[in-house]
């Protein structure tokens, strides 16, 4: 027992020596004083130097001195007429040649109400030496009613039913609608300027094309105006219905 206690004491002492903590000096604390100061703003740049004065100034406009007009030399006529001619008579001509409704300064053969200085037989706004032209009566005027135009019709077939039935509207939609075609009748009785004014309302351009082709086949007797064939225009409505 004594030996065991002795051995344990030796171990304890040895362990205590191993566990001995060396005493060290306490750490020193150093304070660093930092002084912060706001930097002053940089001074503004100096203002730009004033623009240099113009080296030369514009010369003042010289006042224009009006030139003195030299009075014309008045020459006294050598001979003086005994009588002063009557202005009214000389302007309008002799009383025997005066035109009723004429004006002073007119000439014999002029037209009452004409322009002074005009050309005999001329037209207002015309050019001297120009050739007078007449309006071509064969040109188209305002559209005529279709009933008047059809009075001169020689051949006027209707749109072909089998072609209308073969269109998309004829096979599937089958809703009716109206197509308006504008056309003109030329001087030889043939149709011209055929256009679609109002399309088929159910969006099938093939129906419009069939109506235009139908009008192109129409023939008429020439329309006479003043004894001369003239071109006229009109509009026709096609009421399309499907079975």
Please explain how this structure is put together.
The protein contains six helices and seven strands; from the N terminus they run H-H-H-E-H-H-E-E-H-E-E-E-E. The chain has helices at residues 2-18, 87-92, 146-150, 161-165, 168-173, 205-216, and strands spanning 153-155, 177-185, 191-198, 219-220, 223-225, 228-230, 232-240. The strands form three sheets. A three-stranded antiparallel β-sheet has the order 3-2-7, with helices on one face. The longest helix has 17 residues, at 2-18. The radius of gyration is 58 Å and the shape is elongated.
Count of helical regions: 6
Let me know the largest β-sheet: 3 strands, antiparallel
Strand % is 15-25%
**Which of globular, elongated, flat, extended, rod-shaped describes the shape?**
elongated
Helicity, in percent? 10-25%
How many extended strands? 7
Q: Class by helix and strand content? A: alpha+beta
- For the CA atoms, what is the radius of gyration? 58 Å
Q: Overall mean pLDDT score?
A: 74
Please trace the helix and strand order, writing H or E for each element: HHHEHHEEHEEEE
Strand order within the widest beta sheet: 3-2-7
Report low-confidence residues grouped into runs of 5 or more: 54-60, 90-97, 131-140
Distance between the termini: 135 Å
Summarize this structure briefly.
By secondary structure, the chain is of the alpha+beta class. It has six helices and seven strands. This is Energy transducer TonB.
